Amino acid sequence: MQCLAVLATLLALTSAAAAVLEPRQTTACNNSPDLCSRSYSAITHLGAHNSPFLRDASTSFSTSGNHYFNSTIQLDAGVRMLTAQVHRSDRGWLLCHTSCDLMDAGLLSDWLGEVKIWMDNNPSDVVSLLLVNSDNATPGDLATEFTRSGITEYSYTPPSSTAPQITWPTLQDLISANTRLMTFVASLNPSQVDSTNAYLMDEFTFIFETAFDNTDPSNFTCTADRPSSLRGRTAEAVSSGRMPLQNHFLYDTQLFGIEAPDEANITSTNAPADRPGNMGDAAEACRREWAKPPVFILVDFFDQGPAIATVDRLNGVTNPIGRTPPPARDTMTSGAGSSRALPLGLVTLVNQVKNGANPNLGEWIWAAADWSKTLGGWDTSP
Ligand SMILES: *[C@@H]1O[C@H](CO)[C@@H](O)[C@H](O)[C@H]1NC(C)=O
Ligand SMILES: *[C@@H]1O[C@H](CO)[C@@H](O)[C@H](O)[C@H]1NC(C)=O
Ligand SMILES: *[C@@H]1O[C@H](CO)[C@@H](O)[C@H](O)[C@H]1NC(C)=O
C-alpha cells in the first residue's frame, strides 16, 4: 500500500513537472495572449494624453503637466498610445505644451528614440503615436526626425494614405512583420505624403474623436467632434470606418480662464465605475452608442483610477502579463522640486526678462495661471 502511495506521489510529481516544462503555446501580445489574434482596431488601447508633459520634480511639478511618470514608465505599465504636441523652434522640432516657454519636453527625435528603445526591449508590443502638428510640419519635416531616431524600422505603412482602413492587421500580424509602430498626425495633408514617409497617417483620415475640451464630468459624450466635417454626425463617423477615439480627461479652469489638467478629480475621472464622470461607465456608454468599443481612450495621469482596469475590461483581459507598475511618485519635498519652486514656464519667462527679452502678454498669462496654484515662497532658479 505504502509502495503504491509513493508511486502515486511520484507520478503526480512527474506530471506536474511535465506541465511546467511544456512550452507556452503563445506569447502575450500587448500584455495578453488573447489579444494576438484580434485586429488592431478590435481592441481598446490605453492612451496617455500629452505623454511627455510631466508633473514631477523635473518640471517643478508644473500644473501644465499631464502625467506623474515618463513615457517609458507609461509603456511599462500598459499604456499603448502616446500623444504629444510638436512645435517648431530655433532648436528644431520640439515637444512643447501649448508654448515652448510654458513647457519644453525636448526634441521630438530624442523622445522617439526613447520609444524606440522601449520597442527594442519589448518585441511583442504594438505602440501607437498621435502627434499634434501644432506648427504645420510637413511629412518630410517629421520623417527627418523619425529617421534620426531610428524608430522607422518599426513603422507600419497603411495600404492607402487617403481612405479609412476598414480591415486592420491583427496584433500578431504586426508583431510578425515587425511593423509595430502606428503613427498618426493631426493633421497632415495626405497629398504631401510620399512613398518615403507613407507611415505618417493623417489622423482624421483614419480616426474620429469625441470632444476633448471638457471641464465638468457631465460634459463627456460619445458624439463625434473631429474631423469637423463629421461634427455631430456620430453614426456617419462610425460607418465611415474611422476608428473611434474617446477623450476622457478634464480641464480645471484657472485664473483668466486658463485651463490645466484637472488633478483634483482624477480618482473619479479615471475610475472604472461608480464615481462621477468615471471612465468605465463613459466607455460603456460609447460602446452602446457606436455598437463597438472605443479603439483608443486618452487619459491624463494614466496610473490613477486605475485607468487600465477599464481597458482590460473592454478587452476581456483578466490576467495581463508583463506589466510593471509605476514606481513611487516624486513628492514636492524631494529632489529638484520643492514647494518653493516656481513652475518652469514662469521661471523661463522671468529669466528671459532678466536677459532683456520681452515676452508677449499671452505667455505671461499662461505662466501666471500656472503659478496661481503654487503656494509658498519663490525660487527662480530653473
Ligand atoms: C523615466 O523615469 C524613470 C523613473 O524616474 C527614470 O529612471 C528614467 O531614466 C526615465 N527615462 C527617461 C528616458 O527619461
Ligand atoms: C460642461 O458642464 C458645465 C457644468 O454643467 C456647463 O456649464 C458647460 O456649459 C458644459 N460645457 C459643455 C461644452 O457642454
Ligand atoms: C472636482 O474637484 C473640485 C476641487 O476639489 C471639487 O470642488 C469638485 O466638487 C470636484 N468635482 C467633482 C465632480 O468631483
Automatic annotation (TrEMBL):
Recorded GO MF terms: phosphoric diester hydrolase activity
Q: Could you tell me the keywords of this UniProt record?
A: Signal
Task: Give the species.
Answer: Endocarpon pusillum (strain Z07020 / HMAS-L-300199) (Lichen-forming fungus)
Q: Name one Pfam family in it.
A: PI-PLC_X
Name of this chain's protein: Phosphatidylinositol-specific phospholipase C X domain-containing protein
Signal sequence coordinates:
1-18
Recorded hits in InterPro entries, A to Z, give: PI-PLC_domain, PLC-like_Pdiesterase_TIM-brl
Where are the residues of the annotated region Disordered? 318-337
Query: Can you cite a GO biological process for this protein?
Result: lipid metabolic process
